[in-house]
UniProtKB/TrEMBL annotation:
Gene Ontology molecular function: metal ion binding; potassium:chloride symporter activity
Organism of provenance: Anaerobutyricum soehngenii
Domain of life: Bacteria
Protein name per Swiss-Prot or TrEMBL: TrkH family potassium uptake protein
Localization: Cell inner membrane
Transmembrane stretches, start-end: 12-31, 37-56, 68-89, 131-150, 181-200, 236-257, 269-289, 329-349, 390-410, 451-476
Alphabetical keyword list: Cell inner membrane, Cell membrane, Ion transport, Membrane, Metal-binding, Potassium, Potassium transport, Transmembrane, Transmembrane helix, Transport
Gene Ontology cellular-component annotations: plasma membrane
Signal peptide: none
Homology family: Belongs to the TrkH potassium transport family.
Claim: NADP is one of the keywords in the record: no
Pfam families, sorted: TrkH
Length: 492
């Protein structure tokens, strides 16, 4: 285990967070808010610790998937803990567990909240709250790979450990350039959304914070009614960009370099848009039958389908009051999620495509036992290892899901609340149904249940295994053995 490179990465994460935390300080100055001192204090602490951790550069820069997973999981824990401190120190969120819940929800782009009155927060806190979505959307380690001078040929393991989806690869030969391309696309789309919202006459602060939430597919609103009080045009703009940020960024890379045919032939993207179209059509029809005007029904249906499948979590209406059919569709979309390689959460469309193709292959093998057919995606055969990893992911997901629902069930809340609370957080969506619906929050849960949900949010964002590996005894045994060996060498 290369512990020195893990320490080095964690140090850089703290330094990057310290720099990013200066932005809410600027917001505090603009709005003359004293809460900015809390962010400045935490930024100073994070920068000091980060500097101490990176003064001594590691001799060995090469690390494998094991180190990549540990570094990723610890980075997100460090990031969340220090990101929560300003909320707690400023007193805007008095409970440290609540502050951690809110911050983890932000960085993991979940959007679930413990706040009953979000509008009572300072502009500084609202900005940081939304900005955590933007930071976590593409991933802080992807950002590090784009800007810091890490060398060695195995750094794709960091990207694989942090990026959502069953498989992650390079867009270009060097991983640093891949990370830079991803962030250029990410930043460019965010800026375009901000500009369009400003043209629609949305206030500057609102346009920036809501675009951060849309880009990261997060869902923290700055108003108590989420997006309901904004104009129809502004809601449509947000709808379109939520859906666009749920598309596999490989498609944007192909479009950027004028490979339009390949982009249009991506099976996952076609399936993604097909699911959105069918779901929107069914919900629109149901709402129209419930005496809602067609234009309003289409807008609300498209918005909520886009919000749920991309795991953004914004809301224009209390969809918990919709028909059973509509709510069932939305719950199913929670599990489907967006495309792999996007900023969206969930189990990912590509996994479902592979699982359906695997099921079809097994059925055909019963009819034609001697036939040998490869499962293909975009015309390319899928390796057995990928299919196996998807099956393992599904089993692990279900185990964590069941255990989490059981763990929070002791508080006595109804099954719909518990089921959708876990579904909404492990899939990084935000609102669920019943007591955690779009008009409610998660503040009523006990600290124990909140910690369970915090684990679910982190596990969902990191695709389960990078976080689970921290609980493997072999990892800590190896680190402990290394420390003892180093101490013995120092004595001699």
């Amino acid at each position: 285990m290369n512990s020195s490179i893990i320490r080095f990465v964690l140090g850089y994460v703290l330094k990057v967070e310290a720099v990013l935390m200066l932005l809410p300080c600027i917001v505090a100055v603009l709005y003359q808010e004293r809460t900015g001192f809390a962010y400045l204090l935490v930024a100073a602490i994070a920068m000091t610790l980060g500097t101490l951790m990176t003064i001594r550069r590691p001799k060995n820069h090469v690390f494998y998937l094991k180190e990549g997973c540990v570094a990723t999981a610890l980075s997100w824990i460090f990031l969340s803990f220090f990101g929560a401190l300003p909320f707690w120190i400023s007193g805007e969120i008095p409970s440290l567990v609540d502050a951690l819940f809110e911050t983890v929800s932000g960085f993991t782009t979940t959007g679930s909240s413990i706040l009953s009155d979000v509008e009572a927060l300072s502009h500084c806190a609202l900005f940081w709250r939304s900005f955590t979505h933007w930071i976590g959307g593409m991933g802080v380690l992807v950002f590090l790979l784009a800007v810091i001078p890490l060398s060695g040929g195995s750094h794709i393991n960091l990207m694989r450990a942090e990026s959502p989806g069953p498989s992650v690869g390079k867009l270009v030969p060097k991983i640093k350039y891949t990370a830079q391309i991803l962030y250029v696309i990410y930043l460019g789309m965010t800026v375009v959304e901000i500009i369009l919202l400003l043209i629609s006459r949305m206030p500057v602060f609102d346009a920036i914070t809501l675009s951060f939430g849309t880009a990261g597919t997060g869902g923290f609103g700055i108003k108590g009614d989420s997006i309901a009080s904004y104009t129809a045009l502004q809601q449509w703009i947000i709808t379109i960009f939520m859906i666009l940020f749920g598309v596999n960024f490989n498609a944007y890379y192909l479009i950027l370099f004028r490979k339009f045919k390949k982009a249009l032939q991506m099976e996952e993207v076609k399936a993604y848009f097909g699911i959105i179209f069918v779901s929107t059509a069914i919900i629109t029809g149901s709402l129209v039958m419930g005496n809602m005007q067609f234009a309003d029904a289409l807008r609300h249906a498209a918005f909520q389908v886009g919000s749920i499948i991309t795991t953004t979590g914004y809301a224009t209406i209390n969809f918990d009051a919709w028909s059973q059919t509509c709510r069932t569709i939305l719950v199913l979309l929670m599990f489907v999620g967006a495309c792999a390689g996007s900023t969206g959460g969930g189990m990912k469309v590509s996994r479902f495509i592979v699982m359906v193709k695997t099921m079809t292959k097994e059925l055909n093998s019963y009819i034609h036992p001697k036939s040998v057919k490869k499962i293909k995606m975009d015309g390319k055969p899928i390796e057995h290892e990928v299919v196996r990893s998807i099956n393992v992911y599904l089993i692990t997901f279900m185990i964590i899901f069941v255990v989490s629902v059981f763990a929070i069930s002791f508080e006595g809340h109804d099954l719909v609340t518990n089921f959708t609370a876990v579904a909404a957080t492990i899939n990084n969506i935000g609102p669920g149904l019943s007591m955690v619906g779009p008009d409610c929050n998660f503040g009523f849960f006990s600290d124990f249940s909140k910690l369970v949900i915090i684990f679910d949010m982190l596990a969902g964002r990191l695709e389960l295994f990078p976080l689970l590996i921290l609980f493997h005894p072999a990892i800590w045994k190896e680190l402990f053995t290394q420390k003892i060996t180093m101490r013995k060498k120092l004595k001699f």
